[in-house]
């Protein structure tokens, strides 16, 4: 794995979202070599610039340790283990890009061959993803957007999303059926009981995870539209839906859960302990 700063992309011509231009046959290095077999280049953007307020006081969430290793490092490894991914852009807390580079250097194994680029993030997840997309070189065809807060996603899930995009789906999300019954309510800000306004049919609901995979051109257009209209969305696929582009679901995984609240840390440590016992890592 080679860690680079923004502006030191493996290519000489980084450009903004929408820059999914024709494949550059002159590209060299790991990005070119990993993707050369299929002619399709997939990068990953990892938004990691959040504070982790719901996790409680402490360092930014992505930098907190799971079994002694920062959550972000687990998330980067989840991407670099996939043979589909040749470049990873980490979007760091705006004041933490140097620390992120140092941590990635410290935890890098020589066998990890993807390039990793670190750029500073923004105010919201959406801003951070947009900044990550802006750092992608123009020879990238598709992009996986993966939360640093989902550090334990199995490589099979990453591969399944990447393969579905490579095979022609413009937008792909991993998701699981919902276990609870879900109610729609009229939101009250005064703390009073919220009236239920509906019960969506559970069999048609899916809880959506990451990585979400997209043709780069499609995701760039979706982010541009949302930025123009000043709108927001809680996930990238939601923005693509507004473009009228079809989003499809592939099976998600229980271990791709998002570390959001303190109890999620307990679950993450348990999953890692089980992996150490069964797989040796
Ligand atoms: N300004 C932001 C906010 C969030 N994220 C990233 O988006 C992912 C999903 O966000 P979430 O789990 O909500 O993380 P936080 O915003 O850090 O959590 P909280 O809402 O509890 O503060 C995380 O990897 C987080 O680092 C980001 O890159 N930039
Ligand atoms: C993108 C996401 O992980 C899909 O479930 C989720 O929407 C992120 O939400 P958050 O509130 O930013 O954690």
UniProtKB/TrEMBL annotation:
Q: Where is this region: Disordered?
A: 1-42
Catalytic activity line of the entry? 2-C-methyl-D-erythritol 4-phosphate + CTP + H(+) = 4-CDP-2-C-methyl-D-erythritol + diphosphate
Q: What is its EC number?
A: 2.7.7.60
InterPro entries for this protein: IspD (IPR001228), IspD/TarI (IPR034683), IspD/TarI_cytidylyltransf_bact (IPR050088), ISPD_synthase_CS (IPR018294), Nucleotide-diphossugar_trans (IPR029044)
The record's listing under Pfam families reads: IspD
The terms under GO molecular function for this entry are:
2-C-methyl-D-erythritol 4-phosphate cytidylyltransferase activity
Which Gene3D superfamilies does this chain map to?
Spore Coat Polysaccharide Biosynthesis Protein SpsA, Chain A
Its UniProt pathway annotation is: Isoprenoid biosynthesis; isopentenyl diphosphate biosynthesis via DXP pathway; isopentenyl diphosphate from 1-deoxy-D-xylulose 5-phosphate: step 2/6
Highest taxon above the source species:
Bacteria
> Site (Positions MEP for the nucleophilic attack): which residue positions?
202, 258
* Keywords recorded for this protein, A-Z: Isoprene biosynthesis, Nucleotidyltransferase, Transferase
Q: Which CDD domains match?
A: CDP-ME_synthetase (cd02516)
Site location (Transition state stabilizer): 54, 61
Q: What is known about what this protein does?
A: Catalyzes the formation of 4-diphosphocytidyl-2-C-methyl-D-erythritol from CTP and 2-C-methyl-D-erythritol 4-phosphate (MEP).
Q: In which family does this protein belong, per the annotation?
A: Belongs to the IspD/TarI cytidylyltransferase family. IspD subfamily.
Protein name, entry field: 2-C-methyl-D-erythritol 4-phosphate cytidylyltransferase
| Species of provenance | Streptomyces marispadix
Give the source lineage, highest ranks first. Answer: Bacteria, Bacillati, Actinomycetota, Actinomycetes, Kitasatosporales
């Amino acid at each position: 794995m080679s860690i680079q700063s923004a502006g030191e992309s493996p290519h000489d011509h980084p450009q903004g979202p929408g820059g999914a231009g024709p494949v550059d046959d002159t590209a060299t290095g790991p990005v070119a070599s990993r993707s050369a077999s299929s002619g399709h280049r997939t990068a990953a953007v990892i938004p990691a610039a959040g504070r982790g307020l719901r996790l409680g006081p402490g360092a930014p969430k992505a930098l907190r340790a799971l079994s002694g290793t920062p959550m972000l490092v687990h998330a980067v490894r989840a991407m670099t283990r996939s043979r589909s991914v040749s470049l990873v852009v980490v979007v760091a807390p705006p004041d933490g890009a140097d620390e992120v580079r140092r941590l990635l250097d410290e935890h890098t194994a020589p066998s990890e061959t993807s390039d990793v680029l670190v750029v500073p993030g923004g105010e919201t997840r959406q801003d951070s993803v947009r900044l990550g997309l802006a750092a992608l070189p123009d020879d990238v065809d598709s992009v996986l957007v993966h939360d640093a807060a989902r550090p334990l996603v199995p490589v099979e899930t990453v591969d399944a999303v990447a393969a579905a995009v490579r095979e022609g789906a413009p937008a792909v999300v991993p998701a699981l059926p919902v276990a609870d019954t879900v109610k729609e309510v009229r939101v009250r800000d005064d703390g009073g009981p919220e009236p239920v306004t509906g019960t969506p049919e559970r069999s048609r609901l899916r809880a959506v995870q990451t990585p979400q995979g997209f043709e780069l051109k499609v995701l760039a257009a979706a982010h541009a539209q949302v930025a123009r209209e000043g709108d927001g969305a809680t996930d990238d696929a939601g923005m693509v839906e507004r473009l009228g582009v079809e989003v499809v679901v592939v099976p998600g995984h229980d271990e791709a859960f998002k570390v959001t609240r303190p109890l999620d840390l307990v679950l993450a440590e348990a999953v890692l302990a089980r992996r150490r016992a069964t797989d040796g890592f």
